[in-house]
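ok new one. same drill as before - structure tokens go in, u give me an amino acid for every spot. 247 of them this time. try not to just spam alanines like last time pls lmao
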């Protein structure tokens, strides 16, 4: 029986704003952790800017005071890894932003992920009968003395993921891969049910891309997203990481 790692973190991920950009795969090749390859949807490669709420967070089963409910924004892309006869579809993070230093330090220690701690705020107004079924979700963070923002406007009711859709591809990567200091790759599993989504009526990102994410992403993130939606989210579990086996 293969070893199933214990839960490292449990929480709820809610109100996920996802701005998705088609990118030249050559830009991402140098960022691939060992043993992974780019994952494609309809021969297209994507990066996504994702903002969401962490709620009811527990690390190793314990609530940490002042670190239970908070925001995160990350830039990520999509990969796959061959494990035995199984292709595991996962994500690689370029950078992850959280509001508290302790969260960033634990994530760097446990997974060697690229976390930074910055001032953050969010405004969430989901569609309801009282607001005419119009809503918006935004996440902001302060970097280099400037507020950056990721936001989407939505309406109506969220819809189930369509099989084979772009939204299904973006949301249903259930593994994380992180390059380690010794050149190896850490693999960890993320568990959650399929999410319903609101297609975005409008979306935007404003910020200093070059100093935050690097010059490779300036042209890409300066144009409108290829697609955008907001996912409802759910309870999640992140399991302890293990070194990947290179087939």
């Amino acid at each position: 029986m293969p070893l199933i790692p214990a839960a490292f973190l449990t929480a709820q991920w809610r109100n996920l704003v996802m701005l998705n950009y088609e990118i030249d795969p050559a830009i991402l090749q140098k960022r691939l952790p060992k043993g992974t390859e780019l994952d494609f949807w309809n021969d297209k490669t994507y990066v996504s800017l994702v903002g969401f709420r962490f709620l009811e967070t527990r690390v190793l089963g314990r609530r940490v005071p002042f670190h239970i409910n908070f925001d995160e924004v990350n830039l990520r892309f999509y990969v796959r890894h061959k494990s035995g006869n199984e292709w595991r579809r996962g994500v690689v993070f370029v950078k992850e932003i959280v509001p508290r230093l302790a969260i960033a330090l634990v994530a760097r220690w446990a997974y060697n992920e690229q976390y930074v701690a910055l001032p953050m705020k969010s405004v969430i107004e989901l569609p309801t009968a009282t607001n005419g079924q119009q809503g918006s979700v935004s996440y902001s963070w302060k970097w280099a003395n400037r507020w950056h923002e990721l936001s989407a406007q939505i309406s109506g009711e969220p819809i189930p993921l369509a099989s084979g859709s772009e939204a299904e591809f973006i949301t249903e990567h259930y593994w994380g891969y992180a390059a380690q200091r010794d050149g190896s790759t850490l693999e960890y599993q993320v568990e959650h049910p399929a999410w319903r989504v609101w297609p975005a009526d409008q979306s935007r990102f404003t910020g200093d891309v070059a100093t935050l994410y690097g010059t490779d992403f300036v042209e890409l993130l300066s144009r409108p997203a290829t697609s955008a939606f907001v996912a409802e989210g759910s309870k999640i579990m992140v399991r302890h990481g293990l070194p990947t086996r290179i087939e």
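The mean pLDDT is 92. and btw The longest strand covers residues 7-22.
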